[in-house]
Amino acid sequence: MAEEVLTDRVKEEISALAPLDIIVGIPSYNNAATIGSVVTSAQAGLLESFPDRKALIVNSDGGSKDGTVEAFKHACRDGHSLTIEHPVYPVHHLTTPYHGLPARGNAFRTLFRIAELAGARALLVVDAGFHGVAPGWFNPFLDAILNKEFDYAVPLYRRHKYDGALTNCIVYPLMRALYGRRIRQPIGGEVGISGRLARHLLTRNIWNTDVARYAIDIWMATAAVAENYKVCQVRMGAKSRDLRDQSSDLSTILVQVVGSVFGLMETYDSIWRNVLGSLPTPLMGDPCEAPMDPVSVNIPRLHASFQQGVRDLRPIYEIVFTREQLSELEAHASQPLDRFSLPEELWVGLIYEAALAHHRRAMDREHLLKSLAPLYLGWVASFARQTENEDSSKADERIEKLCLAYEQLKTYLINQWPLA
Amino acid sequence: MTEFLEQAVWGPLRELGQQAILNLSSLVGMLILLILGLVLGWVAKEVVYGILRILRFDRLADRLGIGPVVERTGLARSSSYLAGQIVQGLIVLTALLAGLNALGTPLTRNLVERVFLYLPHLLAAMLVLIAGVLIARFLGRSVLIAAVNANLPSARLLSGITRLFVVALTVVAALDELGISRTTIIVTFAITFGGLVTAAAIAFGLGARDLARDLLQSQFRPKVEKEMADTMRHI
After folding, report:
1. Average pLDDT, integer, range B184-193
2. Window from A264-268, A399-403, B218-222 with minimum mean pLDDT
3. Which chain B residues have a beta carbon less than 8 Å from that of A249?
């Protein structure tokens, strides 16, 4: 029998309101400054676009100490609202997750259970720290789930060409090559989920694992795509930069994010090993030309980090990569910055070898993932140098070229996987 | 006269002969046990080696970091072969001790008893050494990766020092377990490491005063941004 995550009081409250059409879930942790505006926008958006739908706004808090819950209650003077506290254990505070919200997985589990109990058709989860969310933001997501019957809707934000570098060079192309669906920002933070998918995800036994702890978004996106749920992307404007993801250092982000993608390759290996090529994902919403925040990248510093990594981490790379890859890496590391450029094939080969080494447990997995940091910085330096004088569309073309390299070299990964 | 010869010569000679036959049978028994041990040991080595090879023990040993150590030190041609050799050695040793015990003299009995009492210490010391090598390797790697990711120029040196320190500690603990000049080893270890730390501190203080000042300043005074900061988000 599944573990119950709601108290009897909460269950009674929800039963009294059921059936509901929409649940807007707002996971929070010390977001007193922003949660009020998120709630106000959600209420206005629901009233504007879905006045005839019965909705509930739920704040799932992870033990805030700055008055977040009070701010939420204060903002929810009209309409149905509910405050609950999802469990946060000491283990959740041991390592800061890349998204900055401890026990985010538990928040989702609680919201899924509420959606199930209320018989909700759509669940929209918005981060309480989301700056500048407008009432119009909610409509395309809920429209995709309620009217167009998609099961999983992820945002597609307008981003600077250097922003989200890890998503651009590993997460997006790798997930696209693996599962054959082009989801440009699979870990966008905000997400719309159908009641059907929420009920399904609730039954999965991942809630006490690192996937739920650190990478719930990656898991949900992977599960939705791999298990053939209807997925779409929703065009959004530029997301205001709160730099929350930089609360963790790069090596921790690599362990959490890349480690989760690699880990899910084990779970879904019978699926991705039968996929070649990729299909586009439907796009909802209108194109938006909102201005983006400027992003600066210190290319010489990244290049120096790459050079040091190739030089000093050789004993580790010898275990993970092939001799040819090592020689190529060393040849590129010896190049001066003005001629420095990492070829797509080399980069994809390195990531695939790292995935195989992770699979065969060639060494401690955390060591393996953390040792990728200098190589990643090298790729970012190379990409930034190549696109320094190019606009966003040219940079996107380069990312597309990289994605195609991932897809073309996937046969190697498929063949090597059982032998690893 | 006959009685005298019987008492003074033939009697002791007969006794000596009987004793020699008795000892010879013990000696032959010991040799048989030893030969049996050698044969059994060889067979056990081959069996263990074969089974471990089928079970891909060498790969596991490589992952744990034992394989490269075996390879580098030339202890054996592979980790699984080394495991076979250890089993062989234990069987031969047991046979030898059983053979010595079969001689039945107080000296050999005493020796066997002492060896058996010492064996647990030997085993514990071996385990301490193996654990030490593994821990040294793990910590060395952790330090190396953390230092490289923090852009410390002396990452490899730091990693090497960490490994050396852990291995040295392990060797001291293993020797202590074996009871080999316990006090001398601990004192030597303390003096060596104390000396090294003092020497390093003096060298750092005299030779790298500016560096020390800069380092402390960077730790305790607000940083002045010299380089352009990255503002990109990874996710």
Report:
1. 75
2. B218-222
3. 149
Question: Are the Cβ atoms of B234 and A246 closer than 8 angstroms?
Answer: yes
pLDDT of residue A403: 97
- Kindly determine whether residue B228 and residue A295, on different chains, have CB atoms separated by under 8 Å: no
Sign of the dihedral through C-alpha B61, B67, B68, B70: positive
Could you tell me if residue B79 is left (phi over 0), alpha (psi between -120 and 50 degrees) or otherwise beta? alpha
The confidence score (pLDDT) of residue A243 equals 47
The pTM of this model reads 0.81
Q: Does B72 touch chain A (CB under 8 A)?
A: no
Question: What is the structure's pLDDT at A66?
Answer: 86
pLDDT band at A93 (very low <50, low <70, confident <90, very high): low
Q: Report whether B81 contacts B61 (CB < 8 A).
A: no
* Minimum-distance CB partner of A308 among B141, B142, B151: B151
Please answer yes or no on whether B233 and A313 come within 8 Å at the CB atom. Answer: no
Can you say how many angstroms the Cα of residue A125 is from the centroid of all Cα atoms in its chain?
A: 13
- The verdict on B235 touching A (C-beta cutoff 8 Å) is yes
Query: Distance between CA A178 and CA A273 in Å, rounded?
Result: 8
Q: Of residues B114 and A322, which shows the higher confidence score? A: A322
Tell me how close the Cα of A156 comes to any Cα of chain B, in angstroms.
13
Residue A378 confidence (pLDDT) = 96
Query: When comparing pLDDT for A366 and B204, which is higher?
Result: A366
Look at A27 and B227; give whichever has higher pLDDT: A27
Q: Check CB contact of B155 with chain A, cutoff 8 Å.
A: yes
Average pLDDT over chain A reads 88
Report strand pairing: A122-125 vs A191-194. Answer: antiparallel
- Local structure of A257: helix, strand or coil: helix
Residue with tokens 């090596």: A251
**Where does the pLDDT of residue A125 fall: very low under 50, low under 70, confident under 90, or very high at 90 and above?**
very high
Torsion of CA B96, B101, B106, B111, to 10 degrees: 40
Cα distance between residue A108 and residue A198, in whole Å: 9
Residue A165 with chain B: CB contacts under 8 Å: 232-234
Asked whether the beta carbons of residue A370 and residue B144 sit closer than 8 angstroms, the reply is no
Say yes or no for a CB contact (<8 Å) between A294 and B153. Answer: no
Nearest-CA distance B46 → chain A (Å): 27
- Residue ranges and CATH numbers for the domains of chain A are 8-161+170-284 (3.90.550.10), 299-419 (no CATH)
Q: Out of A107-116, A283-292, B150-159, pick the least confident.
A: A283-292
- In single-letter form, the type of residue at position A152 comes to Y
Nearest to A86 by CA among A10, A35, A32: A10
Q: Does the beta-carbon distance from B228 to A296 stay under 8 Å?
A: yes
DSSP per-residue codes, A332-380: HHTS-GGG----HHHHHHHHHHHHHHHHTT-S-HHHHHHTTHHHHHHHH
Distance of alpha carbon A326 from alpha carbon A210, whole angstroms: 31
How far, in Å, CA of A9 to CA of A27, rounded?
Answer: 20
